[in-house]
Amino acid sequence: xxxxxxxxxxxxVQGITGRDGSFHxxxxxxxxxxxxxGVTPGKGGSKVAGIPVFNTMQDAMAKVKANTSVIYVPPxxxxxxxxxxxxxxxxxxxxxxxxxxxxxMMKVAPFVKANGARLIGPNCxxxxxxxxxxxxxxxxxxxxxxxxxVISRSGTLTYEAIWAxxxxxxxxxxCVGIGGDQVIGTNFIDCLAAFEADKATKGIVMIGEIGxxxxxxxxxxxxxxxxxxxxxxxxxxxxxPGKRMGHAGAIVSGGSGTAEGKIKALNxxxxxxxxxxxxxxxxxxxxxxxxxxxxxxxxxxxxxxxK
Amino acid sequence: MKVHExxxxxxxxxxxxxxxxxxxxxxxxxxxxxxxxxNKPVMVKAQVLVGGRGKAGGVKYAENAExxxxxxxxxxxxxxxxxxxxxxxxxxxVDILSESYVGIILDRATQKPVIMVSSAGGVDIxxxxxxxxxxxxxxxxxxxVGLQAYxxxxxxxxxxxxxxxxxxGADILMKLYQTFWDVDASLVEINPLVTVPGGKVLAIDAKxxxxxxxxxxQKEIEAxxxxxxxxxxxxxxxxxxxxxxxxxxxxxxxxxxxxxxxTTMDLVKRYGGEPANFLDIGGSSNPQKVVAAxxxxxxxxNVRSILINIFGGITRCDDVASGIVEAFKQLKPSIPVVVxxxxxxxxxxxxxxxxxKLPSADTLDNVVKKAIELAG
Lengths: 307, 376
Prior knowledge:
The structure holds two protein chains of two kinds. Chain A is of the alpha/beta class. In chain A, about 40% of the residues lie in helices and about 20% in strands.
């Protein structure tokens, strides 16, 4: 089991003839993802690594029935690619492109929702469900099938955390990079709810960073709604206020969005926060042990009551 | 990207927001000429991108042109929080009867623009928000349908009692909202918005921040970038397409990915060091980026060791390794450099690096500890 993508995922690559698009189309195909088509206006009729290329999403969807698209087009065209995918009937759009204007995102994000679709990103590494499907740019070599869900606002920091889990024998159900921008299609809470509903997922690793209040809101949500254990890491404790740390969304402004405040909120909701990503596996193991003991206690209580 | 007050004020004026007359001066004699032409008392306002210029003595009232010249002499070349004043705005002084605050920002929680107003203007609005949040009124705007007149009226009634002023205030809000979209702002702010004798409502300060991601379609605004107000190293980094922030420590960091770069800084601090910078070489594998990154960090005299932390994904370890070898050839660093390469093409990368014989480490925590140890 997994969230958002699985064996049934059929992908169209938007921007498949570009440098990144063609490279990652091949990588996804090699991993075992069912990549059914690519789209680049003006390149219809050609092929990339045996994948047929169409001029428009409409043409592609008429030939292949896909449910997912992944976007590698440059920033000025990325928002149009999202509208095009959703209008063609795609239900999951993953936008890898970095540098999309926030004002455009504010308009397209509600459009995606109103059409019953889901957007992941922009400015994200995408997602991977080990041994089933990968959509985006996450390296397939660092993951391992298992029962941990991973959610993160970052790219390479996510790889670091996944790799640490894999080395310690903690495999994953799905790893999702939700993106480092201010306006994104899918947030922590959306992913937490999906992992809670996924039977195979036993524990969740949530990796946040400075800026905004998503982690604080997620902490409140976890406390109220989640039965599965969550452990966390927050990047940017050493970041000075008022300076954007690479990601458009990673900025401490007016005393809000600090790592300190986020860690405090997470701890208050009973979520352990690691001092380094390499400490996440140990925290996860401990949290799983506790959850198991709690479940056993509950079961024993129910049993004695039944007697 | 931040723009100066005089540039933001022009954006407002272009959209019909009423502002007092004003012109920019780079010398005290220019300041004199402008004030003399206005033939009225003026404000002499330092044009800097940092906040708090008023408290630092960068905004002064001048009764006449002679006074304006004296003040401009004082303010030009003044240092305000590390930024040198190169220009002053000479703006007609007005009699202020009341001051309010008006601002529009992107609200991340709702993913909508939010308009905030307060009749407690002219002061630090963050302090108002913190201590007396009941004095701030907000309207969230549906980004698809835009700001509706009733919303602007709702807010204007929180600021003014006189119907004439309510109408002016609502009109200013509508125009300010249009400015927000037209210039791809992440923030527009008038603090203060004032009323003057006769009932007119005026914006006497202007602040605009532009979304960096939208600069590709805001060429005119990008040309306003004030290079004199920036760290030379940060300008160099932007030209090399690196994301860089200078800090005060002694451990130079070169990392791929913003989240990992922040984490590397955090760990430097955790293990007892101080990071000299945030630097993300980004997702591309261009070896020249590594050379540029090394060059920028080596030009900081505080740096005593450099740590390179790469988790290959899109970025390939062999490309980074080639960049490191090239950087050693060109720059001949005299301080220790410690490298950690893992992920895509790790083996190939380590083979290339063998020629420069650098200390290395296999894990995130160890590369940080080693860099601190080598810094001495």
